[in-house]
Amino acid sequence: MQQSLRLIVVRHGETAWNVDTRIQGHLDVPLNTRGLWQADRLAGALADEPVDAIYSSNLIRARQTAEAIGRVSGVPVQVEAGLRERGFGIFEGQTFEQIHSQWPEQASRWRRRDPVFAPEGGESLEAVRDRVLAATQTIVKRHVNDQQVVLVAHGGVMDVLYRAATGQALQAPRTWELGNAAINRLLSTEAGLTLVGWSDTRHLDETEPLDETTA
Prior knowledge:
By secondary structure, this protein is an alpha/beta fold. It has a single domain, classed as 3-Layer(aba) Sandwich (Rossmann fold), CATH 3.40.50. The chain has 7 helices and 6 strands, in the order βααβαβαααβαββ. It has helices at 16-19, 33-45, 60-73, 96-102, 104-111, 125-140, 155-166, and strands spanning 4-11, 53-56, 77-79, 148-153, 183-189, 192-200. It has a 6-stranded mixed β-sheet, sandwiched between helices. Helix 2 runs parallel beside helix 3, helix 4 (96-102) crosses helix 5 (104-111) and helix 6 (125-140) packs across helix 7.
């Protein structure tokens, strides 16, 4: 019998910098009031589901989201630094408009999804993909058949996992949502990741989650 592991993968709740379209990267920006509400709604949506483990990026916005799930499920949060957001180097702390104004050539390569381009001091898409998939595989190996594991991370991480599950190239334009606190479901087997469901926001029906448009 082929071993399988069910994964619920979630982008953190909203932050003030999401609202400002300001690049966070590895900077530690906490959830705003709406993001904390989203995290609580997310936790409630998963309350009746079996959760065997919760893993979170080491950045506070992901940890706050994961801890909300942990409080409801009674499962402790384990920190996995390999699930942190893409490092954006000199772009971090800047708005999209500021990036295009200050570094137009680098901004163009970023927007074209050049897989080998890394902002000065940051990571390339290829580097992020390799890091995220290695971390995910490490987590998968810790669990037995048919368990369900929650991964709480970032837009860039969600993008990597979606592409891995659907065979999308790194440079392919994105046509899928990466909303804050949306529920995304994958299945991990010996053959790799498979998409089960994506961008379920029914628990957030009172608000429209911001989409990560640059992951």
